[in-house]
Design a protein that fits this description.
about 270 residues; six-stranded mixed beta sheet; four-stranded antiparallel beta sheet
């Protein structure tokens, strides 16, 4: 259970006075790859808008193109068609204001936790003047006592906390999460879901999460975008106005789970 923070009761968004997130616009986005000499369509005319401070989850079948969509939002490659913009400015490449947290923490084993978290600031030549930001990020994720530890000394959940701290130290306006808890055991995953909500509420970033877990999407996000099989199209948007903290056994969440499974064509197995 996560303590509630100042949110708009109707939308579940961070109240405007504390917002630091950015608006995200995805318009007519299509993408394809070349595979064995033929074109493979992955995304087909995806369009949606995320408000500053909103938490949006992308849900769909494995291999439908969710992670590709996140890569395009991150600016790691250009889309074949369509437009991506943040606060009205076109996304044309990577930027520290948009940070990705992957399923694998990808910590450098020869660097301490502190040095791993500091990596982004170091690469941007900002570390000398912002060392306290590293300490603040570690404190935020509960790893202050492990600053001098090495990745092999961390549990899976602690390593993912370090990856979150490495993202948060850059003070992102949009945090992009690609199945960040997919490799964790169920108990650690539940704890990390609560941690993520708490971090989002404190830091006010806009969050875009890819997950295969319907329950996770509904516990964390205010809006769940349901994608079809490849090439991904938006099949539905499910709004979740339940206040935080949310509980797995809540009758409304059970109802929403049934709706999402139905949208995925799995209502007969529910």
């Amino acid at each position: 259970m996560v303590a509630a923070m100042p949110l708009d009761a109707a939308t579940g968004l961070i109240e405007p006075r504390s917002r630091r997130g950015a608006a995200l616009d995805v318009s007519g986005l299509s993408h394809e790859f070349e595979l064995d000499g033929r074109r493979l369509s992955v995304l087909d005319r995806i369009s949606f808008h995320a408000e500053p401070g909103e938490f949006v989850a992308l849900l769909g079948p494995s291999g439908c193109g969710k992670s590709t969509l996140l890569r395009l939002v991150a600016g790691l490659e250009p889309p074949c068609a369509g437009r991506l913009s943040m606060d009205g400015r076109r996304i044309e490449g990577p930027d520290p204001s948009r940070v990705v947290v992957f399923q694998d923490p990808t910590l450098y084993p020869w660097r301490t936790v502190w040095r791993n978290v500091a990596l982004g600031l170091e690469a941007r030549k900002l570390l000398r003047h912002r060392r306290e930001a590293v300490d603040d990020a570690l404190r935020l994720v509960g790893l202050s006592g492990f600053a001098n530890a090495y990745p092999h000394q961390l549990s899976g959940g602690m390593a993912q906390r370090a990856a979150l701290a490495r993202a948060l130290v850059n003070d992102p306006m949009i945090l992009i999460l690609d199945e960040p808890f997919g490799q964790l055991d169920s108990l650690t995953r539940i704890a990390m879901q609560a941690e993520l909500v708490s971090l989002w509420q404190r830091s006010s970033f806009t969050a875009l999460l890819v997950t295969h877990d319907v329950e996770e999407a509904l516990l964390l996000a205010g809006r769940v975008i349901v994608l079809s099989d490849r090439p991904a199209r938006i099949q539905a948007e499910v709004v979740n106005n339940q206040p935080y903290p949310r509980h797995r056994g809540d009758a409304r969440l059970v109802e929403l789970r049934r709706e999402v499974f139905s949208r995925l064509g799995l209502d007969d197995t529910w």
